Amino acid sequence: MDPETEELLGVVGPRLRALRRDRGVTLADLAATTGVSESTLSRLESGQRRATLELLLPLARTYGVPLDDLVGAPRTGDPRIHLKPIRKFGMVFIPLSKRPGGTQAFKMIIPARPEPLEPTPQTHEGLEWLYVLNGKLRLVVGERDLVLPPGEAAEFDTSLPHWLGSADGGAVELLILFGLQGVKSHVRAPAD
C-alpha cells in the first residue's frame, strides 16, 4: 500500500470517534443502528482494525455524510459551480456570471416580511433588465409604481431613482441582467 493511502487510513479511526462523540452517540447505539458489532467499532476507532468499505458504508449512511468525508479523501475537481450569495439591502444576490465588464447576471431573492417595506429609491449608472420568477415584485422607477407578477419583465435606466421590493410582503425571486450605461439587452421576436 502506498504511503499516502496508509496515511489516509491512519486518520479514519480518530475521525470516526470524533464524529460519533460530536453527535452524542454511544458505541452501543451505533452498533444497533449500523449492524456492526461494538467491539469492531471500538477497534476501528482506536486504529486496531483497518477500515474497509463494508464497515464504512453503514457508518456513512448512519451519519449522513459522504464516504469521502469519513476517510478524509482529497477533493477531486468538482464540475459544479458553487455560487456565493451576496447579502445587500436585506436581499440576497446570487451571481450567475463572472465576466468582467459587460452584462452581469444575478438571481435576486427578496425575503418575505410581515409587512412590505416602504420604497427607498436609489440611483447608479447602468441599465437593468429583470424577470420575475416567483412572488409579486413592486418596482418603483421614477414616478411609476408597478406590480409585476411571475412571468413579467421590465427594463429601465438605473440613473432614474428606482426601488425593488415585495408587493405583498411575500418572498420574491427574480433574474436580473445588469449592464453598463449604453449596453442594452435585446429581445428578438420571431418574424410572422
Descriptive tags:
three-stranded antiparallel beta sheet; 9 strands; elongated; 27% strand; alpha+beta; 192 residues
In brief, what are we looking at here?
With 192 residues, the chain is an alpha+beta fold.
What does this structure look like?
With 192 residues, this protein is an alpha+beta fold. 27% of the residues lie in helices and 27% in strands. It has helices at 3-10, 12-22, 27-34, 38-46, 53-63, 67-71; strands at residues 86-88, 91-95, 104-110, 127-134, 137-141, 144-148, 153-157, 162-166, 172-179. It has a 6-stranded antiparallel β-sheet with strand order 1-2-3-9-4-7, with no helix packed on it. The protein has a 3-stranded antiparallel β-sheet with strand order 6-5-8, with no helix packed on it. Helix 2 (12-22) packs across helix 4 (38-46). The chain starts with a helix and ends in a 13-residue tail after the last strand. The mean pLDDT is 84.
Classify the helix fraction into a percent range. 25-40%
Give the helix/strand class: alpha+beta
Low-confidence blocks of residues: none
Number of strands: 9
Strand order of the largest sheet: 1-2-3-9-4-7
The value of Rg in angstroms is: 27 Å
- Give the terminus-to-terminus CA distance: 69 Å
- Largest beta-sheet details: 6 strands, antiparallel
Q: Please write the string of helix (H) and strand (E) elements.
A: HHHHHHEEEEEEEEE
How would the global form be characterised? elongated
Give the helix tally.
Answer: 6
Per DSSP, what share of the residues sits in E-state strands of 2 or more residues? 25-35%
Average predicted confidence as pLDDT: 84
